[in-house]
Please model this.
Amino acid sequence: MIPDDCALAVRDGVVCVVGERGDVRSDRSETGVFANDTQYLSKFEVAVTDRDAPKSGWDQLDRQAGPDGVTTVLVGAAPGEGRGDARKFLLKRDVTVGSDVVTVETTLRNYTAEERVINVKLTAASNFGHVFECPGFFAARDPVDRDTTVSDRESSAELSGTSPDGTARAATVQLEGGRTTSVEAGTDTAGVVVERMLELPPGDEASVVATARLRPTRSRVDPSFDPSVSMTSCPGLFEAATDTLRALVLPEGVPAAGAPRFVAPFGRDALLVGFQTLPFAPDLTRSVLTYLAERQASTTDAETLTEPGKIPHEERRGDLPALGRSIRSPYYGTVDATPLFAALVAAYGQWAGEGAITDEMYDAALNAIKWTVESGDKDGFVWYEPHDHEHGLTHHGWKDSDRAIARPGGTAGTPPIALAEVQGYAYRALRGVAELAAARGDDELTQRLDERAEHLRDAFNREFWLPDEECYALALDADGAVNAVASNQGHALWSGIVPPGRADDVIDRLLAPDVLTDAGLRTYSASHDAFDPLSYHRGSVWPHDTSIAAMGCARYERDDATAALVNRGLDALATGATGDPSRWGFPELLVGLDDADVDAGRVRHPDSCEPAAWSAGSGFGFARAALGLGVESGKPVADPVTELSGTAEATLCCRGRRYAVRHRGDSTVVAPLCKASVTGADSDNDCDHPEVTTDG
Model:
């Protein structure tokens, strides 16, 4: 997604992408300060120059990136060509973001025997372009002219831009102890230079802080969550995943899909993170449900595919929607987010207790079910058509790239299309909301939803089954079943729509070498004519995809398959998240190569966001699968896979109580902890039990 010599910091919806020297430069289109889908700064560079050697440069020595920000260590260029010539300086640049502020702290150490006079110059510039206009992220759209102004002060300046629709955005930049030396403003850019001098004694060091404060700011919802999971097979992984999810949580209280280009709410992504983390972080799940329920559609609009009951695909900000050059504010071009929402409401009720489901949340789930049922055909299948709009999506499932659905021979599927996993999501939603209705005493609705679910399951197993593959079709289209084995069928397992008598066949097909790699499941079988390991959705490996399939295998008690997916998935995540300090880890997708000369499925995809929320959530999804977590009679249960090695521990939140689960060897213990504080959960009694530990 960004070049290897770039790195990013993200928090509270603000992203700062820096280049090899740890700053934002206008000659690197990938770099910038972004928030609210706007590039607030295209240049934010702190240049450090020795007065006596103004043309000397810098070489990168080290780089670390992650939830705490980006640290870049530079050394002064060698002063001559002789071996061992002394380098004068060591420079460390720390970039952090949060609460609409970007901070760059530059620390310089003088390694010479003389006092050095240093010029520090902050250069900032912006045209306040929309993120869709940035060539480093997308196939850039034509830029919009925005009037820019600069209001300078002694050590700072406010750069502002006004769009044709009248909205204004601003960045106030400041260099500690500096003096504004020049400003520039016009119809295409605003810029400022702030400078200061440092006298640096021999062997001493000094730090200078530059900041950028962005406005308008957003009010914040803070879903407090602190999942506690550990597995000796992947030390540090779950702490890194937690820190990553916290960094990606937007001011609205919902995780952004991924950085740098998807720092916005995406319904499907957030819902799947909610499923992955639910037993460990129910407050995050509740925050996701609350946010999406507030944005559930109640009207109809063909331009944005808005229909009553639908859950949005994404919600973008910035000025392009107001200018009629974007339809994603919000956009409802998704066929799966709506049943997933209803299913997650039901799952949240199972873990938090039916009393935790407010009337508003329950009504939103019913509205989602109504859309799911009314959108279905006589068999209950939910279909979609490509959105005939210049900014619309061709495909409305999670594989939403233009060529994501292909028939044998590589030809595109003929719309309309009914995806295998979407029918599974609908089935799970129907069953789950039926249970909620039963808890509220609505027996008539319970019966209707259960009957609808059974009818859908029968039709799915009749129409989607491919006898020759002993697996389900990827989809149905206008020409019949799309004969393609893909990872989508793993989602169908997770939903429960697969009858036990066919589960083993489906699982065995997914574990075949043309689908399973060292890092997880390919999105398309390597034996399919459309397979392309470098594509976005037709052969790549997505961690979240494999985690959903792992939970599906656990549902059918296939320990061997669950362990195969869990071990591969966790190992691939750990390689990126804990093995390389210069990387965040948790990439959106990996290249699904099938080559003896490379690690199959482990190569980072060039178009991948990193980090991605549902990849960070995948660690918890794999933990759910490995520990076999569920709820029975209002209490959590664990049935770990027999192949689970080492020690695994977690804190679970269920019905207002916290429980410790510990597995080692042949022993598994689930015991209540003292006092619960789970937001929104049933809590009709406090836990009187002491903390229980065991050596297994």
